[in-house]
Amino acid sequence: MLSKQAFNALLKTLEEPPEYLKFIFATTEIKKIPITVVSRCQRFDLSRIKSDQLFEFIKKITEKEKGIATDEALKLIVKLSEGSVRDALSLLDRGLISNIEGKELDLKKAQKIYGYFEKSSLIELFQNLFEGNEDQVIKIYRKIYESGVDSKIFLNDFLEILYYFKNISSLNIDGTNFTLNDEEFKKIKEIANKIKNETLLLFWQFTIKTLEEIEIVSNQHIAMEMFLIRLIHLKGISNFSGMMLDNESMNETGINGESENNNKSKKKIDEELFDSKSKTIGQIKNIVQEKKLTEKPALKNEQTKSLQIKNFDDLINVCNIYKEIKLKYELETNVNLVSFENQRIEISFNEDLDKEFVKNLSSKLYEWTNNRWIITLSKTKGEPSKKEKEMNKKIELIKNAKNSTTYKRVLDKFLDAELIDVKLVNKEKND
Question: Of 138, 282, 357, 388, which one has the fewest beta carbons inside 10 Å?
């Protein structure tokens, strides 16, 4: 994606293009394209390719390139590409190139290359989650984590399975869908018939919130384990009876859990759901950091002395001492301090702040102080950045200087003179 400056430069060419030149733009992120550019283009929205058609296409490409891959591996590529031919070809290239042994690219190798895990593992995790088997849930997740699966990928797949649980009655498995096999589809349907709708909705909201907050956590692996543990104990539920429908309720409500009694109490359920969701989701922010704060980390070296960082200026000075130029620049330029106390920093920021800033700063603070720091992002504007303060101070100095007698005398001698900068000079006593 181009920067704003690049788009502006392109816009000038688009407004007066040469007669012999035609532009063709392709993007999957149309919302990021400035409206000024879109308005000067003839737009065509292309639909996603069906799974069976995309499968046949990349299979032909594999044969032409003399690649060797199983149908299961190609189906995985189709699923990951989500109907995009471009993404499918990129994944295929990556898979064939990564398979340097020259052997057949099978499903197991493809899963390792793309950081993908089987849905059956996640379905098994869900079953133990609903049953309240905490040890087994953590065991399954760690196995998935050790296979190299990213936290965001795990959460997105987690949401996908939740969607299947909620809407399984309206879904069909056919030859054009490579997301679930027949066995997985059957297992989800079996479990879904016993799950309360409000539980699934609460899980969905909680997972969405975790996706939003995962970026500010330094150790995402620990955060994911705590996320799963909190789901088990959500609303004080730790067993089947709380999360799942009993036989009597199933007979009364059917698969979808709808009955006359449910309709009468729908408002009450929604209220309970909202209250519970507010209480649980409100606690997720910085959950891992809160936990780490109570722990006493062991020093790597007994001789290591932890630094004392008491305020924001101390933090900037430490960055300067350790030559952390990037962090120092972000703190001085793009960060607006809201509060700083007791190993907690609350900040706001502008759009130029580096995406990895919070993660990098948390890591360095732990390295320097041997303590975990909690860094939160606030909607409050906060005080001006150090750079803004310096600019405001300079503006004030120039303003005062222009009102001074000395400046007026200079203008009398040099009519075209202009004051552009002011510097304070400290006079030494022995001057």
Answer: 282
